[in-house]
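pasting peptidyl-tRNA hydrolase for the record, 206 residues
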Amino acid sequence: MINPHFLIISLGNPLPAYSTLHSAGHFANRGLAQIFRQPEWRERRLGRSKTCLVSQGPKYTLVQSPTLMNRSGDFALGAWKDMCDKHDPASLSLVILHDELEKKLGDVALIHWTRSARGHNGVKDVLKRIRMEYWPTSTFARISIGIGRPPERDQDTVVRYVMKPVSPETRGLLEDVAPFEVARALAKHEENWRLGKQEDQSKRLD
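structre below
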């Protein structure tokens, strides 16, 4: 029987300076803290990492990556190693929250850790630095939050789209509605963990 603890790291550019669609993971993480009745967010240093915002609870450690999106890997690795130094890795799971262009705004999906990053540079950087095989007793997962995408697929248009400021309505959806689906995805991930499953759970949760 495991006594699980989850390190949940949201990727995005630092808030509030970058309150954009690309920071959807941060908004969802903030909402998740409310759902789980977590302690207040506080500045902490994880290992040798930069100071970051952390909501530390008995089961969930919620963390907002303080780095720019494309440089997320070093921070995530440092935070994960710090957690492994303090807990039995067999009781730990690392979950990354990130935005997803291929899903409708607010849609949430539980994704296998090694599934394609689909061009998401922040996810690519994390996957490059954190390899599941180095921690064989731990579990890993990603949870994506859909932000939609523009009709045009050229890079400049996509960059402008993900970096545009979020409206109050969109922020409400990402921070107040999507986190309930994120909590459901976490519950499914924990169920799979307890059952010893590692299969791809990339289908949208119904």
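The chain has a mean pLDDT of 91.
The longest helix spans residues 168-194.
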